[in-house]
Amino acid sequence: MSGLVPYLHFDGTAREALTFYQSVFGGELELHTYVDFSRTDGPKDAIAHGALSGLVALFAADAAPGEASVSMAGVEFSLLGTASAEDLTAWFGTLADGGEIVDALQQRPWGDYDGMVRDRYGIRWLIGFQS
């Protein structure tokens, strides 16, 4: 895996979130529990490390007690031109399910399409494509 890969720390929902992201983006998912890594600083079934690899790559874990979990302000993940227009449109809709459309996916004055969504886990995504 190369390039920038976000590593998110969830408040006990890493398994659910990564499974959701795999359902949106496809790819291979690896999940390792605290027990798998011999960690005793949290619930045995909590995710110590998870990795989604594919067109969209993400790492995630469950934050240990007392550690901060993901909170996004002033940042979003950009998927501009990452896939076909059809796939990006579908991703936008699926990410919005249970989340919030911040700015509708629409054609802009310069001719391209983009929009922003905050998913059910609070992650903001900028999705777009050229027309």
How are the secondary structure elements laid out?
Layout: E1 7-10, H1 14-25, E2 28-33, E3 47-53, E4 58-62, E5 77-80, H2 85-96, E6 100-107, E7 113-118, E8 124-129
Parallel strand pairs: 1-4, 5-8
Antiparallel strand pairs: 2-3, 3-4, 6-7, 7-8
Tally of individual helices: 2
Largest sheet: 4 strands, mixed
What percentage of residues falls in helices of 4 or more residues? 10-25%
CATH C-level category of the largest domain? Alpha Beta
Radius of gyration: 16 Å
Compute the average pLDDT.
95
Intertermini distance:
30 Å
CATH fold group of the largest domain:
2,3-Dihydroxybiphenyl 1,2-Dioxygenase, domain 1
CATH superfamily of the largest domain: 2,3-Dihydroxybiphenyl 1,2-Dioxygenase, domain 1
Kindly give the count of domains: 2
Structural class based on helices, strands and sheet pairing = alpha/beta
**Global geometry:** elongated
Q: List low-confidence stretches.
A: none
Structural commentary:
- This is VOC family protein.
- It comes from Microbacterium schleiferi.
- Pfam families: Glyoxalase (PF00903).
- It is elongated, with a radius of gyration of 16 Å.
- The strands form two sheets. It has a four-stranded mixed sheet with strand order 1-4-3-2, covered by helices on one side. A four-stranded mixed sheet has the order 5-8-7-6, with helices on one face.
- It has two domains: 56 residues, 2,3-Dihydroxybiphenyl 1,2-Dioxygenase, domain 1 (Roll); 53 residues, 2,3-Dihydroxybiphenyl 1,2-Dioxygenase, domain 1, CATH 3.10.180.
- It is an alpha/beta fold and 131 residues long.
- The longest helix has 12 residues.
- Strand 3 and strand 4 form a beta hairpin.
- Helices cover 18% and strands 35% of the residues.
- The mean pLDDT is 95.
